[in-house]
Write a structure and sequence with these properties.
Elements lengths: L2 H20 L11 E4 L4 E5 L3 E4 L2 E4 L8 E7 L2 E4 L4 E4 L5 E11 L5 E11 L6 E8 L2 E8 L11 H5 L7 E7 L15 E6 L2 E6 L11 E2 L20 E4 L3 E7 L6 E11 L2 E8 L7 E6 L12 E2 L3 E2 L11 E2 L3 E5 L4 E5 L5 E3 L12 E7 L7 E7 L2 E11 L7 E10 L9 E4 L5 E6 L2 E6 L14 E4 L10 E7 L5 E7 L14 E9 L4 E4 L5 E5 L1 E8 L8 E2 L2 E2 L4
Parallel strand pairs: 2-9
Antiparallel strand pairs: 1-4, 3-7, 5-6, 5-8, 8-9, 10-11, 10-40, 12-13, 13-14, 14-15, 16-18, 17-18, 18-19, 19-20, 21-24, 22-23, 24-25, 25-26, 27-28, 28-29, 29-30, 31-32, 32-33, 33-34, 35-36, 36-37, 37-38, 37-39, 41-42
Length: about 550
Amino acid sequence: MNLRNICCFFIVALFFYACYDDKGNYEYRDINEITVEGIDASYARDVDDSLRIYPVLKGTMYDDTSRFTYRWEVAGRTLTETYNLEIQIDMVPGERSCRFVVKDKETEVEKYHRFSLNVSSSTAGDLIMVLSKYQGRAELSYLRLDKPSNWAINYYQDRYDELLGVEPKQLRIVYAEANRCQPFVNSYGRVMVLADNQVSLLDKSSLMLDTINPYLTGEAYTGLASYPPPDIEGYESQYLMEEGISIWRSNPYGSYFQLSTHFAEISGGTLYTAYSLAPSIWTPGYTYKSKSPHKGSLSAFGFWDAMDPTGDTPTMVNMGYDCGDIILFDKTYGRFVYGSAYGGVKEIKKADFKYFEGYNLLWGSATNMADDGCVAVLNNGDNCRLVLFKSGYEEENAKNTTKKWVADIAAGDVIKSTTKFYCMKYTNYMFFVTDGNLYLYNLLDIQSGMAPNSRNLVTKLTDMGYDGDAVITDICVSRTEKTLLLGVSRYGNDMEASGEEAKGDLLYFDLNSSTLSVQYNEEKSYKGIAGIPVDVEIKYQTHWRDGMFKGELKDNI
């Protein structure tokens, strides 16, 4: 036998020996094979909707649910470790791969059941929004109005892992939609959040921070200016004026709608404006750092002195306003001044208007009075004055238009620096809230020298079961003037809204704009939906002026 044959013999012998030696070492047993039913291949939900899945396990040997562990995963992240899935969708929009993982406790064999979840925006519609101070930071809460929904409470930081700021001041909604007028608008409109003298720019449909233009900056107002570099030193946002919707109408000559809006803000004691925003048929323009003609610093508040509805024509349905001029106040010298969306600030001659040295402009509004009559509230601490004025012609030169003082009085004890106001659009009344009380005041009483007092009280929080520590921090009225909302804080002296419990409430009142009566609607009111309410706004997805379009009511509130 040659060497090759000998080697082959030993190899074969070794193989048979190994097989003989291994005989009986394997213990074969059946495995419980699991199938999962009751889970769809895909699910579609809006943000903040509920997702409930109740799976059914079937095993070839046993399906006792206590013999398994469970895990629900979304995009690789564990949501919960329960048998049934019952969650509220708290995710940004998008499609995600998901799986349900079942693990046998005894064998540690895992079964994976895959499905998809498509999350859509729940905010592309009308909402009630609340900007609040919660746990020392700015936060947002909202409620959908298009269907029965739960509040998304103080959701922003947890959902987007972004901080809106520490000191929240103001919410502002811009309805115009256009791609070329960014960052003031985008194709879905804007929600602006002012906090820490910085404006965060959110998409109005998704409420997500804009990835291209996350913040409003002074450069946005410089337009095409390139060299020399525009002087915007000292830019810091202080107050965002209400959007001036000058044109919003059905247009038979081309596109279905013609839109043109104006935007303005007070920054660093000066005026910044963006005008003719939104449409392609007009060219937008920008002005920046318009100063008081007296060289003082402007108060951090401004308002349009006219908001008269534009009239209809046989061919167009108009839903805009005659916005008038921008009323401003030089707090350094105590003088009212005025400008426009197109830039520039003008003085008011001493013969036409009183001075108010030592005061600041707290609030102001157009009214229902003739000649673009306006009301303003000035304050020096809690010492406040009510001022009425109108548009007219200069005493010195009757050819020049100006603003003319009508009357002013001390505002009494029920208006303070913390008071918030709302002026009715078609009557000469304003609502205001101070501490825990809601008041209604006839503006004509300013001319009569009658300051607001306890006789103007409409209701108080103690009538609704609150204790003396609760305060009303903001007021909001729907565009139909059928609903009045109050933001309420139960935090007492805790100005940082510490703790996990949300103690900011929203109270709902039915408002009759003809009789000016209000009726508390407890069923529609909400407790614990925010931190300390700073600004309550109704975010309509589309501007319909008084909530009506061609006789059809468009409001959900």
